[in-house]
């Protein structure tokens, strides 16, 4: 199972707390400076959801 989201705080940090893999999509709520926080590091980072097909 993997969490896909554009919100570092609720989507990515939440996934890490549940020991799940995560995909950050750089749209919507995403801000580039959020990637500087190692606690919020996603498993994968995509520019948009259409790139999901290259992972799975």
Write up what this structure looks like:
- The protein is 18% helix and 21% strand.
- The chain has one helix and three strands, in the order βαββ.
- It has 56 residues and is α/β, with parallel strands linked by helices.
- The protein has one domain (2-49).
Radius of gyration: 10 Å
Low-confidence stretches: none
Give the strand order of the largest sheet, numbering strands 1, 2, ... along the chain.
Answer: 1-2-3
Multimeric organization: single chain
Q: List the helices and strands in order.
A: EHEE
- Helix percent band: 10-25%
| Number of domain modules | 1
Number of helices: 1
The assigned structural class equals alpha/beta
Tell me the strand percentage band: 15-25%
Q: Count the E strands.
A: 3
3D shape? globular
Tell me the major beta sheet: 3 strands, parallel
Q: Give the mean pLDDT.
A: 93
The span between the termini is: 12 Å
Q: What topology emerges from the helices and strands here?
A:
Layout: E1 2-5, H1 8-17, E2 21-25, E3 44-46
Parallel strand pairs: 1-2, 2-3
